[in-house]
Amino acid sequence: MTTRREPPISDESRPFWDGTRERRFVLPWCTDCDTPIWYPRTFCPTCSGSAVEWREDPGTGTVYAASVHTRPGPGRIAEDGPYVVALVDLDAGVRMMGNVTGCDPDAVRVGMRVVLVWEPLSDGRHLPVFQPG
């Protein structure tokens, strides 16, 4: 079983984390220029607009880059074994960092299609991670 340091909740990220409680993946979108935003913030980095709404997304994408870590990282123990940290280009148009699970870590490749799945956290939230798909 993976031991994980659980992410904090900020005012900007609260809608995201609230959605994860229901296993709903939501992304902030700027309604001024109709652009998805990642990471959660109160303004659009594209047009500097402040009209941000949250939209549900399926969480599908492609691995842009990946790194296999063989030593325990923050919030992990040696028994967790090797794990993958990847940058994923979501089909929605943003790049997100996350773990790729559900396969041999050495099998993760740039260009691999992935889909978001959920890892439960202790407080009822869920952490988005990716699996081949």
Written account of the structure:
Helix content is 6%, strand content 38%. It contains one helix and eight strands, in the order αββββββββ. It is globular. The mean pLDDT is 93. The protein has 133 residues and is mainly beta. The two termini are 23 Å apart. The strands form two sheets. A five-stranded antiparallel β-sheet has the order 6-5-4-7-8. A three-stranded antiparallel β-sheet has the order 2-1-3. It has one helix spanning 14-21; strands at residues 26-30, 35-36, 52-56, 60-69, 83-90, 95-100, 113-120, 126-132.
Helix-strand blueprint:
Layout: H1 14-21, E1 26-30, E2 35-36, E3 52-56, E4 60-69, E5 83-90, E6 95-100, E7 113-120, E8 126-132
Antiparallel strand pairs: 1-2, 1-3, 4-5, 4-7, 5-6, 7-8
